[in-house]
Design brief:
Elements lengths: L5 H6 L1 H5 L1 E5 L6 E4 L3 E8 L9 E5 L11 H11 L3 E4 L10 H10 L5 E4 L3 H6 L5 H10 L2 E3 L3 E4 L4 E5 L19 E5 L5 H4 L9 E4 L8 E2 L3 E2 L13 E5 L5 E4 L16 E8 L1
Parallel strand pairs: 3-16, 4-5, 5-6, 6-7, 9-10, 10-11, 11-15
Antiparallel strand pairs: 1-14, 2-3, 4-16, 8-9, 12-13, 14-15
């Protein structure tokens, strides 16, 4: 598939215009940093019982044992002391690193739980590892694997994890009763267009996949984002004008085909419920 897709931009023009960027890469709030990783923070308004909760989002690790980032990732996670840890997909690029990636995930602290969804690179790994083996590997690391599935948490918080858009078949199934606050985890931000008819019941969507472009040119932005909508959902905080649904897109922690980052640091995302 060639990116961007002019037919997709034309066909979904009205839906795309409803998404307004509120914070971009230049406005991101960096609250901590270390050796090669930044901790970026967002605040999200939630119902009273959920106030004070902390979510830590990691995406696109594309893990290899040569990154040298494991200690820094764990240190920042310990500093945040999150209630929930969310892995947004693309755990590894090569299957030989699955064991060490799982060992890293196991070290991450979480008061309430850890959740993970598949990315397009994870989907490729299923040629050698079945979905159930993948689920068990994550379970051994303390993670619940969600692929078009829900997880009902306390105080009316509901998570829904989708399948990957490019290599899977993502869909959303509403709850029987509207939860107090609903979070959708979708690896690819292009998925939000597929969710358009359900946005009234979704409060927050968490995504990765774009890597923020990996290379961002001052005054221009990313040259490539692996999205059929080009730079529409490259990075940052967005809000849907029709429903008020919020979308957060992280630049992630790794790199895939080209191991280079320029003007687009690796990051972990802290989401504070206020």
């Amino acid at each position: 598939m060639i990116y961007p897709s002019l037919p997709a931009l034309w066909r979904h023009g009205r839906d795309l215009r409803r998404w307004r960027r509120e914070l971009g890469h230049r406005q991101r709030q960096v609250v901590a940093g270390g050796r090669g990783v930044e901790l970026v923070e967002y605040e999200v308004s939630v119902p009273l019982p959920l106030k004070g909760m902390r979510l830590l989002l990691l995406s696109d690790l594309h893990w290899t044992e040569k990154t040298g980032l494991d200690a820094e990732i764990v240190r920042l996670a310990d500093q945040v002391d999150p209630d929930w840890v969310i892995c947004g997909g693309d755990l590894v690029s090569y299957s030989c690193f699955l064991k060490s990636a799982a060992a890293l995930l196991k070290k991450l602290p979480a008061r309430c739980g850890k959740l993970c969804v598949p990315g397009n690179w994870d989907r490729k790994r299923w040629k050698w590892f079945s979905r159930e083996k993948w689920r068990q590997m994550l379970a051994d690391a303390g993670f619940l694997f969600l692929c078009n599935q829900a997880h009902e948490a306390a105080d009316g918080l509901r998570f829904w994890g989708t399948d990957d858009l490019r290599l899977g078949n993502p869909y959303f199934e509403p709850a029987a009763e509207r939860p107090a606050f609903q979070v959708v985890i979708a690896h690819n931000p292009d998925t939000v267009i597929e969710l358009e008819k359900h946005l009234d019941g979704i409060d927050l969507i968490l995504c990765g996949h774009t890597h923020g472009g990996q290379v961002r040119v001052p005054g221009l932005g990313p040259l490539y984002t692996s999205s059929i909508y080009w730079r529409k959902f490259d990075y940052g905080r967005f809000r849907n004008e029709r429903t008020g649904t919020q979308l957060l897109v992280t630049s992630g922690l790794g790199s895939s085909s080209i191991n280079i980052r320029l003007g687009c640091p690796r990051e972990m995302v802290l989401i504070r419920f206020r």
